Amino acid sequence: KDCKSLTTVTNLPANVTDMSFAFTNCAKLASVPALPAGVTSLWRAFANCTSLKSAPVIPVSVNNMVEAFDGCSALAGKVNLATNNNKRAYRGTAVTEVEISADVTHFALSCFKTNTAIQNVYYGGAATAWNDITYEGYNTKIINAHVRTDVKASEPTVEVKNGRTYICDLDTDNLRDVFIGKGRAVAYRGV
């Protein structure tokens, strides 16, 4: 907490369950490793880490994301949410894509009061369940985003044709043409 010079964390102990306030106000923290599978609380864990560019995947064990990434203004790209205890979880961020578990039935105050428009939401539940989600104020960016429902986590499919390997990530509909040979790899996104 309040570490002024910490820029990266390379390893978190596997037995950590409560990360409340762990890296709060570490303004230079730019990256963190995968979170331990058994972590349950991220209460203000990364709040005001203004250099943090991406969020780790949040394990399903997390039941407290209150202000977890609040004020992380550089945080962009894709994030996930699997708990209703999410007040101000991503407030003040620049996230553009969100994966939401079917278990989420409520967006608490300012959960997604982001600095940018949320472009895509991938919701694990049915469209009727999405329409039944309740929300408190300052969540219009998630409510107004493009939503895909019934999204299930899956492994990418891999197909080899004419010496090329095609990897299709079904969750985001991105096809990547990857040629691996003689020490080279080329990837194309959004093809």
Describe this structure in words.
- By secondary structure, the chain is mainly beta.
- A hairpin with a 2-residue loop joins strand 9 and strand 10.
- About 8% of the residues have low confidence.
Structural descriptors:
191 residues, mainly beta, four-stranded parallel sheet, four-stranded antiparallel sheet, 2 helices, 10 strands, 5% helix, globular
Largest sheet: spatial strand order:
1-2-4-6
Q: Uncertain spans, ≥5 residues at pLDDT below 50?
A: 170-184
Helix content: under 10%
* Radius of gyration, taken over Cα atoms and rounded to an integer in Å: 18 Å
Tertiary shape: globular
What's the helix-strand series?
A: EEEEHEHEEEEE
**What's the total count of β strands?**
10
SS summary, helix count? 2
Mean pLDDT: 86
Task: Tell me the fraction of residues in β-strands, as a range.
Answer: 15-25%
Largest sheet: 4 strands, parallel
Helix/sheet category: mainly beta
Termini, distance in Å?
Answer: 42 Å
Q: How do the strands and helices of this protein lay out in sequence?
A:
Elements: E1 76-81, E2 94-100, E3 106-107, E4 120-123, H1 127-131, E5 134-135, H2 140-143, E6 146-148, E7 157-161, E8 164-169, E9 174-181, E10 184-186
Parallel strand pairs: 1-2, 2-4, 3-5, 4-6
Antiparallel strand pairs: 7-8, 8-9, 9-10
